[in-house]
Amino acid sequence: MVPPAPASTASGKLRIIGGSLRGSKLAVADLPGLRPTPDRVRETLFNWLAPTIDGARCLDLFAGTGALGIEALSRGASEVDFIECDPRLARALRDNLTRLRQSARVREGDALTVLDEAPARPYDLVFIDPPFDANLWERASVTLESRGWLATNALIYVECPLESVFALPATWRTHRESRAGAVRYALYRRSNKLAAS
């Protein structure tokens, strides 16, 4: 069982914790299974990303509230695309982006279908944080790698339950990782060279 969201989301609001939008609040829909990345995890992640986030082209693959992608925009990402399958969440995300005066594309649809069918555009940074009960980490990573969605030295963020076991592409090397309660989160760097056996 995934621990409940932190206190910052209890009132239906989530705050941006750094950058030009610091302190801005995002409305959070009360929907089953919605699990925004906690403040402390986002803070750690974006400390890891600080040397590379400025000017990065990013993809928030299972966007939900869009907190990861909006945090990236706040901290200097040049472009963020969001994919979200729930029409209510996609609409709320567009509303939040408009209110914050942020220009970004929100695609409504199944993330893996979009990756399979849309023309690939290589990203510098991809966030993979799907619903925990959907077990989509391996399929998403394979599709990103095989369909040309990742820049040569792309960074990929993966958030999952601590006990999850799944295979990632051999070209992905662990860059940083940590845990928060029952959640493991890690940042991988893509390389064209396979790890030595």
Overview of the molecule:
There is one protein chain. The protein is of the alpha/beta class. It has a single domain (7-190), classed as Vaccinia Virus protein VP39 (Rossmann fold, 3-Layer(aba) Sandwich). 25% of the residues lie in helices and 28% in strands. The chain has five helices and nine strands; from the N terminus they run ββαβαβαβαβαβββ. The protein has helices at 39-49, 67-74, 87-99, 111-117, 137-146, and strands spanning 13-15, 25-27, 57-60, 79-84, 105-108, 123-128, 150-161, 172-180, 183-190. It has a seven-stranded mixed sheet with strand order 5-4-3-6-7-9-8, with helices on both faces. Strand 8 (172-180) and strand 9 form a beta hairpin. Helix 4 (111-117) packs parallel to helix 5. The longest helix has 13 residues, at 87-99. The termini are far apart.
